[in-house]
TrEMBL record:
It comes from the Eukaryota. The lineage of its organism: Eukaryota, Metazoa, Chordata, Craniata, Vertebrata. The keyword Repeat applies. It comes from Micrurus lemniscatus lemniscatus. This is SPTB2. Keywords: Actin-binding, Repeat.
Amino acid sequence: EQWIAERDVIASSPEMGQDLDHATLLREKFRDFARETGTLGQEWVNNVTHRTDQLIDIHPEAATIAEWRDGLNESWADLLELIDTRMQLLTASYDLHKFFYDGSEIQVLIEEKHKELPEELGRDVNTAESFHRMHKTFERDIHLLGVQVQHFQEVAARLLAAYAGEKAMAIQKQEQEVVKAWKALLDACEGRRAQLVDTAEKFRFFSMVRDLMSWMESVIQQIDTQEKPRDVSSVE
C-alpha cells in the first residue's frame, strides 16, 4: 500500500512544463515511470492477490483479508487511471508547447526565405530569363515550407477544438501570424515573377525594335548606294 501511495504522489503532480524542452523531459521521465510502475506493480499485485486468495480459504478472518485484497486492487486500479490521466495531460502540454515552438520556427524560415528574394531584374533578355529560371527553382524550394504551414494549420484546428479562453486565443493568434507571413511571401514571389516576365518581354521588345531599325537602316543604305540613272534611256 505504501508503494502505491508513493506512486500516487508522483502521478498526481500538477507540473506540466514551462517550455517545450521542459515538457519533453517531464513526458519522457513519466513515460519511464509509467512503464516501470505498470510492470513491477502488476506483478506485485498479482502475487499478493494470489497469496490472499490462498489465505482466504483457510484463515479465520477471511472476510477481513478479502476486504483488504479488494481495497488493494481498487487502489492499484486508481493508480493506473491516475497514471493514464497524467500521461494524457503531459502529452497535451507537450503538443501545445510544440505548436508554439513550431510556429516560431516556421516564421523564422519564412522570413529567411523572404530575405533571399533579390530585387535585381536583369540588364537584358538573357539575365532576365536567367533570373526567371532561378525564381522558378526558388518557388519549388518553398513548396515544402508550404506543406509545413498547412500541417501547422491542421494542428491549430485540432488544438482549437480542445482549448478555450486565453489558450484558444493564443493558438489562433499564432496561426494567424504564420499564415500572414506565408501569404506575404507568396505575394512577394508572385510579384517578382510578374516583374521578371514583364522585364524579359520589355527587353525582347527593345531587341525587336533594334533589329527592325537596323534592317530599315540597311535598306535605306542600299537604296542610297545604288547607282542613280543618268538619263531617260538608262532608266529604260
